[in-house]
Amino acid sequence: MTRESRRAQAVKASPTMAITARAAALRREGKDIASLSAGEPDFSVFPHVEQAVVEALRRGATKYTASAGGPELREAISDWMQGDFGVRWPAAQIQATAGAKQALYNACQAILDEGDEGVIFNPYWVSYPEMVRLASGKPVVIDLRAEDRWEPREEDLQRAFNERTRILMFGSPVNPTGAVWSEQCLRTIARVLEKWPRVIILSDGIYSRLVFGGVKAPDIVQVAPQLVDRTVVINGCSKAYAMTGLRLGWACGPKDIIAAMNKVQDASTSNPSSLSQHAAIAALRGPQQPLEDMRVEFERRRGIVVELLRGIRGVKCHVPDGAFYVFPDVSALLQKRYKGEPVQTSVRLAEILLEEFGAAVVPGSAFGREGFLRLSFATSEAQIRKALERFARFAGALE
Ligand SMILES: Cc1ncc(COP(=O)(O)O)c(C=O)c1O
Fold first, then answer.
1. Any atom of ligand 1 within 6 Å of the Cβ of 235
2. Is the CB of 248 under 6 A from ligand 1?
3. Which of 181, 302, 327, 399 could covalently link to 185 via disulfide, CB atoms 3.0 to 4.6 Å apart?
4. Nearest CA to 103 among 310, 306, 304, 262?
């Protein structure tokens, strides 16, 4: 007999974590593993951010703060968000959280009732469907296509909504495809939503600063300001400021929704770490050049990854405009055999690649999409070259 709640049973263990854990275990055994599976920048925290944490610790900033984050942090978030998205959310409409993940989680808990539907897109970031399920909701999935540059079609959007839909959750730049959704795409979403005034949008901009080739990642509230009353815009320091472990994100949104999210946070975790709050103030208010240097380096590595992948027979690779992932089509490789065994699935491909060739990637099925892989270029050029040389050897060994 299980001792797990039905809610917990409905949640799948994170498949990206599983690959990372297996790669780490192989490394502990002394194997040389080149990993392109990481979902975090390989950069250290910026020097002025590090200094702010040390100073905050020395000053004794180690007590509880307001559950939604201290006023100084929420002012810094308010200014930063206005600078990036042109909308001013007052501090009372901002909740600071332990990472963007907690902001999305709080929003799902605050909005969804049992049986309510949450619309998401496939391929999805692994946590979106699980967060809907944890709030006793039902994920409803819209399939995207590579030939549409991974943007949704209007007719598919129209079919997804009904009177039970309470949220639409998405982020651009997209994890795992690296797509940046155009203004036109966001306008289409806004047009479809006109018919569904009860739907709240959870707009996840965690990669908004990591865009390439002069592309900008607009938020839906910029192209459809009429939606600001029913949009929760989520962002954070994890990706842009290389602060994944410090766990500092936030949500900006309508008063009533943020108030409901504050109740969820009050009753569960209280404030995000006081030291991380000081790190975030320094990151948001301090010099932005280290972020730009990191972005430029990611852009350079993007070029290397795409070029190397395109050199492998059976791999089709688009150029991602944002985040730090490529999502190549490897369906031709799945038709082949390795040592007589049909490869068939992206999970098996990733296993063979890891166990036999020492390269870690994430199977597309983790994101709901068979036939693809997610490769991260948030790792050194040397690791990228080593991993892709191994991938090429693997592809060459298939019959
Ligand atoms: C699309 C997306 N949203 C949110 C997050 C979570 O960010 P955080 O580390 O701030 O919780 C991630 C992290 O991988 C992500 O890919």
1. no
2. no
3. 181
4. 262
Tokens of 31: 């194997």
DSSP-derived 3-state class of residue 313: coil
Distance CA 324, CA 271 (A): 29
Is the predicted pLDDT of residue 74 greater than 80, yes or no?
A: yes
First to last CA, the chain: 45
User: Per-residue pLDDT tens for 263-316?
Assistant: 999 999 999 999 999 999 999 999 999 999 999 999 999 999 999 999 999 999
Question: What angle is formed at CA 14 by the lines to CA 67 and CA 146, rounded to 5 degrees?
Answer: 105
Residue 19 has pLDDT above 90, yes or no: no
* pLDDT tens track for 353-383: 999 999 999 999 999 999 999 999 999 999 9
Measure the CA–CA gap between 36 and 312, rounded to whole angstroms: 16
Instruction: Look up residue 332 and give its amino acid.
Output: A
Closest-CA residue to 72 (of 91, 97, 47, 93): 91
According to the model, what pLDDT value does residue 15 have?
66
pLDDT at 245: 97
Are 228 and 212 within 8 A, CB to CB? Answer: no
Selection from 298, 243, 299 nearest residue 48 by Cα: 243
Contact (CB, 8 A) for 271 and 249: no
Using a 6 Å cutoff on CB, does residue 39 contact ligand 1? yes
Give DSSP secondary structure letters for 6-18.
Answer: HHHHTSPPPHHHH
How many angstroms does the Cα of residue 127 sit away from the middle of ligand 1? 9
Give Cα separations from 168 to 44, 71, 130, 323 (angstroms). Answer: 34, 29, 14, 21
Instruction: Indicate yes or no: pTM above 0.85.
Output: yes
Q: How far apart are CA 288 and CA 298, in angstroms?
A: 16
Give the C-alpha separation, 128 to 234, whole Å. 13
Q: How far apart are CA 208 and CA 323, in angstroms?
A: 8
3-state secondary structure of 218: coil
The average pLDDT across 132-150 equals 97
Compute, in angstroms, the gap from residue 390 CA to the centroid of ligand 1.
28
Paired tokens of 398: 């298939």
Which residue in this structure is represented by tokens 């200014």?
79
Report angle CA 306, 172, 280 to the nearest 5 degrees.
105
